[in-house]
Structures are given as C-alpha cells and as structure tokens.
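step=encode ok
step=design start
structure_in=
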C-alpha cells in the first residue's frame, strides 16, 4: 500500500520545555524528513518523550514552533493535528474485536463503508485471521500491531511511537522492530519513535537523534553515529567505545597524530572534533570489532600504517559468534576486543603479551574535556 500523503517534514524550531525551574528540553532545532523512520534515543529522563508529546500537541512548548510541512501547528490541539500516537500501553478497546478496534477511527469520522480500509490494514499488520478476536485473546506483539493499524487507519501525516515495544520480551521486541520497519516502508508515512534501546534505534531508524540532558547530542544515520561519534556520551551510549587518553602531536594534514601509551596513533581529521584539531589532551576511540590481536612475537607481520598499541590479555570469553577479550594496555584503558571466526585453539590466553592493531581510518578523536560515562 502506498500512501499519497505529501505533508512535508516535521520541523521543530527553538522548541523547549521547562517545568518551573527545571528544563526538560533545551531549545531545540530538529527536522524529521518526510517519509523517514526517525528515532529519538536516550536514557530515562533525557527529554525524548516530552519532545514527542510536543509534536503530538499533548504538551505545550515553553518556546518555539512545530511545523508540519509549511504549516505551523504549535497552537493546534492534538486532535486537529494530522498526527497519531501509539503508546506502550496499547490502549485497545477490550470489548471490541480486532476489526472494530481498527475501524474505530473511521467510524468516529462518520464513515460507513469501512471494510476495504480495515481489510487493507489487517493485511498490512498480518492479522487477517484474527479479525474476530478480542484483544485479550492476542499476544502482546499482536496487540501492538492492532494499535499500529488503528493509529494508521486515518492516514496520519506522522505516526508517533512512544516506547511502543517496551512491554514485550526481548525476542518479540526484535521481531516487532523488523515488523514496524516493514510497515513504515510499506505505508511511507513519517514515523517518530522514542526508545532508550540503542539497538532498537539502530535497527529501525533511518536517522537517530541521540538525546542527553534535554539536548540532542548528535543526529545522524545509525552507522554514522556508531562509526563517527562526536561526543563521549554518544560513543559510550552506542556500544563499546574503547576511549584512550592521548596527546596531540601534529595536526597539519588530513590526519591528526597523537601519542598514547608511548606509541603514535593516526586519526583521520574528519573524524575529529574541532577541539582535537586544535591540539592538547584528547581521547581517541576505536570500536572493539575493528581491532585485531597479534602475539607480541608476531608483531613484525602487522601491515605498515595500521594503528597499534601493546597490551596484555586479562580476560577472554568465547561467546559463540566471537571471542571477547579484555586487554590492559599502557594506553591506560581496559580495551575490549571482539574477534570473529577465531578457532578455539588459537585463542589468546590471559597473560599473553599482544599487539592490538587496526586500520587508522576506524579511529575517532574526541574532546578530552567531556566527562566519561
Ligand atoms: P523516560 O524514558 O523515562 O520517559 P524521557 O527521556 O522520555 O524519559 P521525559 O519524559 O521527556 O524523559 O522527561 C524529561 C524530564 O522532564 C524528566 O526529568 C522528567 O522528570 C521531567 N518531567 C516530565 N514531565 C514533567 C512534569 N509534568 N512536571 C515536571 N517534570 C516533568
């Protein structure tokens, strides 16, 4: 099913929310491209739900404007906005069957012939065989799909999802993530999804806004955020970051050269914050799966040009798809290394002296003044 909606982007300009002396959301500019799957990601209390509720009209902004396309909807009540919300508590009508729950939005608008549209929705959420079931006869995931169908039946311009998978167990949540992504692709409506689960945001969203303390710390495609975090918060919130304290020694060319643990490391200039490019003490990071390990005796076989630091294995655990090592390094940090496809008899054992090496292109440089989590 392709939606013909051409409502435009969701644009927040200077949006903020204060409760008395407390600022839940600092003035924020954010554009959600039309037709995208957009995630607001952050820990509890970071302001993501408040931001979502301001888009819905459920919360009045203290400052700023909410645009849907070119239309300023800031002063419109929720029911007058072309927006619908799916909550974690599915809020289905318990006495109505699935069909009537989905038809509700159409009937309320006085539409009599609902069958074609409801059938289309039942097919979209793959519940055609459950039309006559009551909500209590459905699993959590099925109930959630009814809630999504009910919210989509009036073809909103934007669907807001507030931790919609929070009540589901892990396996079902993973299934529903893919399912919601499929539904969004099929209907082409803008989805804005609030979650504290970084894997969920990364799996589903085209773009993720990482929020912290009422501010967006970084906005980008999941892979960009993961590969090229701009703050220590983002680096640590999205996976394991391996931050190493370092000192800048050269900033001239396309790379920044730093010293860490007695060795030199190269950091691509475009993966450094402005503060790193001005020199001084910095943090450099590399993701655990980008690092390879060699016995110290074999260090001569490591290709030229790779970043390298020495270390000693302190822990190793085989977890099926990879072996995870913890390595103590003169670079000062307990570095995590995930190596895949390692035969068990070639595993490095605790105490082994090793060299950690990686493609310099995978290194990022962050401002050391930022606090670590
Ligand atoms: P969670 O995942 O726990 O819902 P969140 O990131 O969605 O967290 P918000 O619900 O947006 O966070 O809340 C942001 C901050 O604003 C929190 O510290 C919260 O306590 C505070 N807050 C929210 N609503 C109110 C209110 N009505 N009055 C006072 N403070 C509020």
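sequence_out=
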């Amino acid at each position: 099913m392709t939606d013909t909606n051409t409502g435009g982007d969701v644009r927040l300009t200077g949006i903020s929310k204060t409760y008395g002396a407390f600022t839940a959301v600092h003035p924020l500019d954010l554009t959600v491209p039309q037709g995208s799957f957009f995630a607001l990601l952050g820990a509890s209390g970071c302001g993501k739900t408040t931001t979502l509720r301001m888009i819905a009209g459920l919360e009045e902004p203290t400052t700023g404007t909410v645009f849907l396309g070119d239309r300023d909807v800031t002063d419109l009540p929720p029911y007058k906005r072309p927006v619908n919300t799916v909550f974690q508590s599915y809020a289905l009508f318990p006495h109505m069957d699935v069909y009537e729950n989905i038809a509700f939005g159409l009937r309320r608008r006085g539409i009599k012939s609902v069958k074609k549209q409801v059938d289309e929705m039942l097919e979209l959420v793959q519940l055609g065989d459950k039309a006559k079931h009551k909500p209590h006869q459905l699993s959590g995931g099925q109930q959630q799909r009814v809630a999504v169908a009910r919210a989509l039946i009036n073809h909103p311009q934007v669907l807001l999802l507030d931790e919609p998978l929070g009540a589901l167990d892990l396996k079902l949540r993973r299934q529903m993530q893919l399912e919601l992504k499929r539904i969004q692709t099929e209907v082409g409506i803008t989805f804005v999804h609030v979650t504290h689960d970084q894997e969920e945001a990364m799996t589903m969203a085209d773009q993720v806004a990482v929020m912290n303390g009422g501010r967006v710390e970084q906005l980008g495609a999941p892979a960009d955020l993961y590969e090229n975090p701009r703050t220590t918060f983002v680096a640590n919130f999205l996976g394991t970051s391996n931050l190493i304290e370092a000192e800048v020694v050269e900033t001239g060319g396309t790379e920044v050269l730093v010293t860490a643990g007695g060795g030199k490391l190269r950091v691509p200039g475009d993966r450094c914050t402005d503060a790193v490019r001005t020199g001084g003490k910095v943090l450099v990071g590399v993701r655990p799966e980008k690092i390879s390990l060699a016995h110290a005796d074999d260090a001569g076989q490591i290709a030229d040009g790779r970043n390298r630091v020495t270390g000693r294995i302190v822990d190793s655990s085989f977890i099926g798809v990879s072996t995870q090592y913890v390595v103590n390094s003169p670079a000062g940090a307990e570095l995590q290394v995930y190596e895949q496809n390692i035969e068990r008899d070639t595993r490095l054992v605790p105490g082994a002296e090793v060299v950690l090496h990686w493609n310099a292109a995978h290194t990022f440089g962050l401002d050391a003044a930022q606090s670590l989590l």
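step=design ok
step=annotate ok -> Residues 19, 22, 24, 42, 44-50, 196 surround adenosine-5'-triphosphate (CB under 6 Å).
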